[in-house]
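Please fill in the sequence for the structure shown.

STRUCTURE ENCODING:
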């Protein structure tokens, strides 16, 4: 009987980490000298490590110009990828070194809600809860919380996570209304006529369409002068830039409205649209978890809705 075993050892086909670290610092700082200071090495050591990495790839990674260096096109692509990888490594190390009482709260959020509403308010939660570290990711795809065990809370757009094992609650009603730069408002033109002249900005993920809005308000929908974006945040920014009028949630444009960068067209004239578009979800068996309860109560208070 043959008891011999064959073991296969998988080794990653990547260059030495020390070489990658030297390259990342030099490319980011565009200086071998500054990279050497950051990594507590000599400039000669950095230069040697960069040369060794270039030999590994068989191509130049830097353009050397007198005392300055700049990444080549290949070097820039490598830097972009390494920057993301090093950020992940740094975050992982930070989690390991956290105080024993610290907790990680992993949030997944729709991109525009994260950028326009949640992020400006998060510093308050972080300040009031120093033992909770927020790890925020964003994406338009819906997260299956039962399969993605690493995610504690999901905040979704126009989708409620319903089913056994998952608890969802609405973050309240939002007013959906036409918004534009005040520079586009002409007091001598009736708002109904103005709406037929302005470029219509659409958010492709928004199920509140201009076609529906014109129909509800008994107005003729102009078939031309439209521009579409795949994110509400981009649509709001386009409206601020004076490109046209956007049909979007007041929640996404709070700061722009408060600064006077956007105004509501036809307030009191057009029919308002109210909708529940954002939902907070978490695994039902974590409802009594301290960090889950704290965040749920905090965000519901900020959104002006009652907690369950």
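FILLED IN BY: designer on duty
SEQUENCE:
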């Amino acid at each position: 009987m043959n008891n011999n075993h064959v073991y296969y050892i998988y080794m990653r086909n990547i260059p030495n980490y020390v070489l990658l670290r030297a390259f990342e610092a030099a490319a980011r700082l565009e200086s071998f000298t500054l990279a050497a200071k950051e990594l507590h090495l000599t400039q000669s050591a950095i230069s040697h490590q960069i040369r060794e990495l270039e030999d590994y790839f068989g191509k130049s990674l830097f353009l050397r110009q007198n005392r300055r260096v700049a990444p080549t096109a290949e070097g820039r692509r490598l830097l972009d990828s390494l920057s993301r990888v090093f950020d992940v490594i740094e975050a992982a190390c930070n989690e390991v070194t956290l105080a024993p009482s610290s907790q990680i709260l992993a949030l997944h959020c729709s991109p525009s809600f994260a950028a326009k509403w949640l992020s400006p308010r998060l510093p308050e939660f972080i300040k009031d809860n120093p033992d909770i570290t927020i790890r925020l990711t964003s994406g338009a795809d819906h997260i299956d919380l039962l399969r993605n065990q690493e995610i504690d809370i999901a905040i979704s757009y126009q989708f409620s996570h319903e089913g056994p094992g998952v608890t969802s609650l609405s973050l309240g009603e939002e007013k959906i209304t036409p918004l534009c730069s005040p520079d586009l408002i002409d007091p001598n033109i009736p708002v109904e006529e103005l709406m037929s002249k302005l470029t219509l900005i659409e958010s492709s993920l928004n199920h509140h369409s201009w076609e529906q809005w014109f129909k509800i308000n008994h107005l003729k929908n102009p078939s031309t002068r439209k521009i579409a974006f795949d994110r509400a945040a981009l649509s709001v920014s386009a409206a601020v830039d004076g490109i046209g009028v956007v049909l979007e949630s007041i929640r996404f444009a709070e700061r722009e409205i408060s600064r006077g960068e956007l105004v509501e067209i036809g307030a009191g004239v057009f029919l308002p649209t109210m909708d529940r578009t954002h939902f907070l979800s978490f695994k039902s068996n974590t409802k009594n978890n301290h960090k889950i309860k704290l965040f749920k109560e905090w965000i519901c208070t900020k959104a002006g809705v009652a907690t369950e």
